[in-house]
Specification:
By secondary structure, the protein is an alpha/beta fold. The chain is 35% helix and 24% strand. It has a domain at 5-88 and 158-244: Rossmann fold (3-Layer(aba) Sandwich), CATH 3.40.50. Bound molecules: adenosine-5'-triphosphate (ATP) and magnesium ion (MG). The site of adenosine-5'-triphosphate has 12 residues, from β2 and α1.
Length: 247
């Protein structure tokens, strides 16, 4: 079986800056893949290239059997690839339910069907109690959850999450982890950008590390946390796997 998503030597230049340089990676169907690296490493840029927000300068992006590099965002979305945004994009004056219906309309023109799907997904993500609240009135944790619910309403095969845990407290993070696992268990593959190592390492089947636009390492989390290049470029002392102690 070919991989669900396969990037081959993807580069993105902004003027003189190589925001992504020859990045190759594979996401297998059914996996949770973590994409990590320091601020400015090029994680969001890679998401933007893959999801069609701008074309890569060069390189190949294959998703579900199609070469999608340069496709418009709507076309990528209809092909089954949805993403969330690092800066949340809730429609503040619309209700939570209507916000999610916008996602559902990627698959249907019927309002009743879109509403039913939105309601079902709000129950799944734990936001049903807020369905009639205005987007603007949600906490940051609920806004992140809403954005995730709207992405799910497009029925993606691959869901790309850009820092959905940022700004959440530990209890909210634990809920988000449970939710992401449940999403994968329902059959959606997940690629997530996250700075919280206590979250990304336990949840990921495979981790890819970017630094200054380049891939510097990839592998299972237990290998990545011990990789000297990754520790030097990013992890430093801030993350130690639990089984290593500090003595
Ligand atoms: N639209 C753009 N135009 C010009 N430069 C950009 C643009 N988008 C990103 N960059 C630059 O590309 C580099 C990579 O940025 P990017 O946002 O992809 O990093 P990131 O890994 O997501 O960082 P963070 O962890 O802070 O979100 C940075 O130097 C950034 O300033
Ligand atoms: Mg980013």
């Amino acid at each position: 079986m070919p991989a669900l998503l396969e990037l081959d030597a993807v580069s993105k230049r902004f003027g003189g800056l190589d925001a992504n340089r020859d990045v190759s990676l594979v996401v297998e169907e059914g996996q949770i893949v973590g994409l990590i690296g320091p601020n400015g490493a090029g994680k969001t840029t890679l998401f933007n290239c893959v999801s069609g927000f701008f074309p890569p300068t060069s390189g190949s992006i294959r998703f579900a059997g199609n070469e999608i590099a340069g496709w418009a965002p709507e076309r990528v979305l209809r092909a089954g690839l949805a993403r969330t945004f690092q800066v949340v994009r809730t429609f503040p004056e619309m209700t939570v339910l209507d916000n999610v219906m916008i996602g559902a309309f990627a698959r249907t023109n019927r309002a009743g069907e879109a509403r039913a799907r939105a309601a079902e997904l709000l129950a799944f993500t734990g936001l049903a109690g807020r369905a009639h609240a205005r987007g603007a009135d949600l906490t940051i944790a609920d806004k992140k959850r809403l954005e995730l619910t709207r992405a799910l309403a497009t029925q993606p095969r691959l869901l790309m999450l850009d820092e959905v845990m940022a700004g959440l407290n530990p209890a909210e993070r634990a809920q988000a982890v449970t939710l992401i696992r449940a999403i994968r268990d329902r059959g959606t593959t997940v690629l997530l950008v996250e700075h919280v190592m206590e979250v990304v390492m336990p949840i990921s089947d495979h981790v890819v590390v970017l630094d200054s636009g380049r891939k510097i390492a990839e592998g299972p989390p237990r290998t990545i946390v011990r990789d000297p290049n990754v520790i030097a470029a990013y992890l430093g002392e801030k993350y130690r796997p639990r089984d290593e102690g500090t003595a």
